Amino acid sequence: MKLFSGLGDRVVGGPSILAANFAHLAEEVRKAEEGGAELIHFDAMDNHFVPNLTIGPVVAASLVPETALPVDAHLMVENPDILIPAFLDAGVASISVQPEVVMHLHRTLTMIRSGGAEAGVALNPTTPPESVEWALPYLDFILVMSVNPGFGGQSFIPEMADKIRRLREMTDLPIEVDGGINEETAPLVAEAGARVLVAGSAVYKGNPAQEMRKILDAGRRAIGQSSWDTY
Ligand code: DX5
Ligand code: ZN
User: Fold this and answer.
1) Domains of the chain by range and CATH?
2) Known catalytic membership, residue 46
3) Does the active-site annotation cover 43?
4) Nearest ligand, CA of residue 96?
5) How many separate helices (H) and strands (E) can be counted in the chain?
6) DSSP 49
7) Residue with the nearest Cα to atom 10 of ligand 1?
8) 54 FRET partner, CA 20 to 30 A, in 43, 44, 72, 207?
9) What's the gap between Cα 19 and its chain centre?
10) Residues 194-231: pLDDT tens digits?
11) How confident is the model over 3-59, as pLDDT tens digits?
12) 18 Cα: distance to centroid of ligand 1 (angstroms)
């Protein structure tokens, strides 16, 4: 299932399940889908690259058959190469790695693609866009971290809108944005050129279907797209 390559100029989004109730994961995902989510963002953290410890391929393998939506794995881990085969086996649609800790990025991205998933890099707030210039041919998308990875519920770093603009000048690859996205910040990143909005705490703070819908509407309105365009 290709998520990023078939996107065109549409603004889409999905929940970060980090903020969901893990005891009811399939149901939490369904609620966001009712609100128009088109992907499920899956945050793997290893207690080394980031202080937090979350979920891995075993949970991904349980979740994938429970949802029709593509699962987008964001690996905030020091040694992603070790985990990528298991995530591919789990059936995730896309995998992003943090280039700050990947020694041989070409090899890692090629491994993701040859396993049938779309490949991305997730850039920490101070990682320069130019640092991935030579990786562009091996990428299907770029994930701009608009907070420091590791935790949900942090505030959007406003300069990340400028970073999205810089990336837009460098490439036509779809730009996903993750961290502090809500009704107020979705317009800023959509105007800057991001097309994939990930939101955790803003979705699960209330009724996930309604909150997801509000965020998507806000992002689309900002660039003159109607929510009905997608249905
Ligand atoms: C942060 C994760 C995000 C996080 C976003 O390290 O990569 O996906 O869940 O959460 P919010 O939307 O609450 O900032
Ligand atoms: Zn994430």
Assistant:
1) 10-224 (3.20.20.70)
2) no
3) yes
4) 2
5) 8, 8
6) S
7) 152
8) 207
9) 14
10) 999 999 999 999 999 999 999 999 999 999 998 765 54
11) 999 999 999 999 999 999 999 999 999 999 999 999 999 999 999 999 999 999 999
12) 7
